[in-house]
Amino acid sequence: MNTGMSIIVRTITRLVYGLTLVFGFYVIMHGHLTPGGGFQGGAVVASAFALLLVAFGAAGIKGRLNHHLLQTLEEIGALAFLALGFVGIGTAFFYNLLAGSGSLLFGQLVADAQLLPLSNPGVFNAGGTLPLMNWAVGLKVMTGIAAVVIVMLIGARKEETE
Amino acid sequence: MRKAVILVAFLFVGAFLLLAATSMRPFGEPSFADMDDYFIANTQVEVAANNAVTAVVFDYRGFDTLGEATVLFAAVVGVLALFRKLREDEV
């Protein structure tokens, strides 16, 4: 039966799990400034879920991660991404309407040597629809991969006990 | 005999790779760099993002990313459908 791994693995998982989640969400959140983005950060977060699953077994996630909820969240992410693509449909599909528009939501201009000589290269509130799309894709990837891992584990366990 | 054939095949492919390596163009000088130069020059002004790769993926080539997301969605739905069938047989 699949009841998880040794106490060493479980202790290390308890230590690393939160850090992995924080790092994954950081990669998603800063996708328009630093290397990474929605796909990469989502995969990191999903790897944290997979680690939890491997270390504690199916009993460890019972009642916390439910693949019906994850599936719904994945569909919400996909629809949000599509909707953000339609935001700029007045000009073109996937036109970045918010970038540099001065709006409160990610509307600032990023540092540019000619444009803004004294501005901060790490200004977070920039990029227009880019950060929003990063969040949509990140949600989609993390919940999609987590749902796949959970469902495959359940299927494998059912086969084992047959 | 088998090992000799593998060795000959290995040397043959290796020779071709070496031949190709000698006639490669120098690193960092692609033959068509118009799009690259455009992205490097205009990303910060047009998209207001420092990460030019994300700007290309989500803005300039957003339609391509939509296809990628669709591939992931299809993969997830396929796996869920496959294992759901298994579970219904059990219960």
Which descriptors apply to this entry?
heterodimer, A: mainly alpha, 4 helices, B: 91 residues, mainly alpha, 79% helix
How is the topology of this model organized?
The complex is a heterodimer of chains A (162) and B (91).
Chain A: H1 7-29, H2 38-60, H3 67-87, H4 129-161
Helix pairs in contact in A: 1-2, 2-4, 3-4
Chain B: H1 2-22, H2 34-46, H3 52-60, H4 62-90
Biggest sheet character of chain A: none
Outline of chain A, from the CA principal axes?
Answer: elongated
Q: What's the helical proportion of residues of chain B?
A: over 70%
Number of domains of chain B: 1
Outline of chain B, from the CA principal axes?
A: flat
Cα-atom Rg of chain B, whole angstroms? Answer: 24 Å
Q: How far apart lie the N and C ends of chain A?
A: 11 Å
Q: Count all strands of chain A and give the number.
A: 0
Number of helices of chain B: 4
Helix percent of chain A reads: 55-70%
- Oligomer class: heterodimer
Strand/helix succession of chain A: HHHH
Portion in strands of chain B = under 5%
- Straight-line N-to-C gap of chain B: 55 Å
* Mean residue pLDDT of chain A: 81
Description of the structure:
The complex is a heterodimer of chains A (162) and B (91). Chain A is built from four helices and no strands. With 162 residues, chain A is mainly α. Chain A has one domain. The radius of gyration of chain A is 20 Å and the shape is elongated. Chain B has one domain. Helices cover 79% and strands 0% of the residues of chain B. The N and C termini of chain B lie far apart (55 Å). Chains A and B meet through helix 3 and helix 4 of A and helix 2, helix 3 and helix 4 of B.
